[in-house]
TrEMBL record:
Protein name: YkgJ family cysteine cluster protein
Pfam families: CxxCxxCC
Taxonomic placement: Bacteria, Pseudomonadati, Thermodesulfobacteriota, Desulfuromonadia, Geobacterales
Highest taxon above the source species: Bacteria
Family annotation (InterPro entries): Puta_zinc/iron-chelating_dom (IPR005358)
């Protein structure tokens, strides 16, 4: 056979109503959510916190939410894990990825 059959793991992202702080749900993930979106929305407090932590890919906005640019991978990724897990933005706390 010339082509190997690959079974793709289909994943669906869900944005929960409230934060989920359960590191076990990310235990087998390749940090797809931290690599698959262009940016994440931040509150002013989150923007200030990430700026104080040395974030270099922040976007300040006068007319909308501030943003952390994560295109091509979040700058806080360490391997496939969040290097600021306990301090990550609320939208990151609310996002979860499930397999089919």
């Amino acid at each position: 056979m010339l082509f190997h059959s690959r079974v793709k793991d289909k994943r669906h992202g869900l944005l929960l109503d409230k934060p989920l702080d359960d590191p076990s749900c990310c235990g087998v993930c390749a940090a797809l959510c931290c690599r698959s979106f262009p940016n994440v929305d931040l509150s002013w407090e989150e923007y200030q916190l990430l700026e104080s932590m040395g974030a270099t890919r922040l976007h300040f906005s006068i007319h909308g939410p501030h943003k952390l640019i994560i295109e091509n991978g979040c700058e806080f990724l360490v391997g496939n894990r969040c290097g600021i897990y306990d301090l990550r933005p609320e939208i990151c706390r609310r996002f979860i990825c499930r397999s089919d």
